[in-house]
Amino acid sequence: MLEDKNTQKTSLAELGEFGLINHITQYFTVKNASTKYAVGDDAAVISNQDETLVTTDLLIEGVHFDLSYMPLKHLGYKAVMVNLSDIYAMNAQPTQITISLAVSNRFTLEALEELYAGILLGCKNHKVDLVGGDTTSSTSGLTLSVTAIGSVKEEKVTRRSGAKENDLLVVSGDLGGAYSGLQILEREKAVFKVNPNNQPDLSSYAYSIERQLKPEARKDVIELLKELNVTPSSMIDISDGLSSEILHLSKASQVGFHLFEDKLPIDPEVIKICEEFKLNTTTAVLNGGEDYELLFTVAQKEFDKIKNHPLLSIIGHACDFRGGCQLINGLGQQIELTAQGWQSFDEA
Ligand code: ADP
Ligand code: MG
Fold it and tell me: Nearest residue CA, atom 3 of ligand 1?
């Protein structure tokens, strides 16, 4: 599906490991005072006054991404976003990342330039410094590992475990878009296999495709909470699906949840795609992952500060742990939530 418009091809062997590292890191400049020394030594040096947070993610071609519809620049951007999202989910500010790469000789310098252009954009948009990494060859495909480092004052650290009974359950943005976008991309890939000359018009699915290919970590939500002077009692980002994340908050906090189906924030385009694919929209929202929105709980006394805010939806509340996690539909019926979100070992 993706046409390679870049005609120049430079094999990675021509540059060698150090030439490659110098080449792809040359456009990165340091933006954070806490970054004392970035790329170039045996280890980066970071100096923090507050708490330091660390998170890492591994992305494997064919398992986590498909380069037939994922442009390398988008992959670079997304790899950064999924890590920054984990730092934001702790109510913290990301400050540095490291990138480790295993690449087969199928990839050219120009391909890695594309990947790093996405990484650079992610760093720029979120004021994060690239401070190191590792580069090695692989016998097949591309493997990418990103580690993000962040910081926050001790009293602001927000874990999964702080939700209390009666707290409000809040989510940012809208849900189900990334999953709907994936359905479209998978369908177009199948069509392309049969008819490579087919030029699909994807403009009416633009929002969902962008949610899948170019997710944005919710820096704005963390800034908003700070402005509103609200510290969530618990928080998690939505990578595997709403249902799975609610169950994580429930287990860590030892509370149950009531989630109201009619409160779920869903873009009209997602509803349209679900109709097209004969999928239940609520199921897509509960089980479809990769929205990278923030899901959090706040004390009831914060209600006035967050109600009616366009970025935030109150979708439920915490209850007694023994009641479990229940979806309440329009008829008032309760349906127990299960984690059908993607689980890596189920597929092994
Ligand atoms: P070492 O052999 O000591 O691990 P390397 O020669 O692999 O060091 O790396 C040299 C420098 O380049 C280090 O600062 C390392 O963090 C950085 N680096 C290596 N690969 C990457 C990469 N893919 N992206 C960003 N920085 C990298
Ligand atoms: Mg090394």
Answer: 42
Beta strands in 255-330 (DSSP E): 256-260, 294-298, 312-319, 325-328
Q: Closest Cα to atom 7, ligand 1: which residue?
A: 134
User: Which of 21, 83, 123, 145 has the most ligand 1 atoms within 8 A of CB, as the residue to mutate?
Assistant: 21
Q: Going residue by residue through the chain (348 aa), what tens digit of pLDDT does each one get?
A: 555 555 678 898 888 888 989 999 999 999 999 999 999 999 999 999 999 999 999 999 999 999 998 999 999 999 999 999 999 999 999 999 999 999 998 999 999 999 999 999 999 999 999 999 999 999 989 999 999 999 999 999 999 999 999 999 999 999 999 999 999 999 998 988 888 888 778 889 999 999 999 999 999 999 999 999 999 999 999 999 999 999 999 999 999 999 999 999 999 999 999 999 999 999 999 999 999 999 999 999 999 999 989 999 999 999 999 999 999 998 999 999 987 644 455 443
Strand bridging mode 234-237 / 142-152: unpaired
Centre of ligand 1 from the C-alpha of residue 125, in Å: 23
Give me ligand 2 centre to Cα 139, in Å: 18
Longest dimension (CA), the chain: 66
Nearest CA to ligand 1 atom 27: 133
Give DSSP secondary structure letters for 227-265. Answer: HTT---SEEEE-SS-HHHHHHHHHHHHT-EEEEEGGG--
Is the pTM above the cut of 0.85? yes
Q: Whose CA is nearest to atom 1 of ligand 1?
A: 42
Please name which ligand lies nearest the alpha carbon of 42: 1
